[in-house]
Amino acid sequence: MNAAQREILTRITKGGVKFDQSLARFSSFAIGGPADALVVVDERETLMPLLQGAEREGLNWRVIGK
After folding, report:
1. What element of type H or E holds 54?
2. Quick count: other Cβ atoms within 10 Å of Cβ 35?
3. 46 CB-contact burial (10 Å; exposed 0-12 / middle 13-18 / buried 19+)
4. What is the CA 40 to chain-centroid distance, rounded?
5. Does pLDDT of 65 surpass 80?
6. Whether the Cβ atoms of residue 39 and residue 10 lie closer than 8 Å to each other
7. Closest by alpha carbon to 53, among 11, 7, 3?
8. Which of 5, 17, 49, 59 has the least C-beta neighbours within 10 A?
9. Does residue 61 have a pLDDT over 80?
């Protein structure tokens, strides 16, 4: 992920993004590689605008978890 993409994602999430995070704590077996960016969403209402913004900006994304 380049600096421009990081800036866009920071703007979309209003600063609620962590970069270069391990996904191990999100796995039952505590394994997982690094994620370029991680956004934890607790409410459904927050997810849709985030995904729409990422899509609009051409950012690749993946939902993991429940």
Report:
1. helix 44-56
2. 17
3. middle
4. 7
5. no
6. no
7. 11
8. 49
9. yes
20-42 residue pLDDT tens: 999 998 888 888 889 999 999 88
Residue 39: both structure tokens together: 């956004």
Which DSSP letter does residue 22 get? E
What's the mean per-residue pLDDT of the chain?
Answer: 88
pLDDT of residue 66: 65
Say if pTM beats, i.e. exceeds, 0.85: no
- Phi, psi for residue 55 in degrees, rounded to 5: -65, -45
Please report which helix (H) or strand (E) contains residue 19, including its range: strand 18-22
Question: Are 9 and 49 contacting, i.e. CB atoms less than 8 angstroms apart?
Answer: no
Q: What is the rounded CA–CA span in Å between residue 20 and residue 18?
A: 7
Q: How many CB atoms lie within 10 A of CB 9?
A: 23
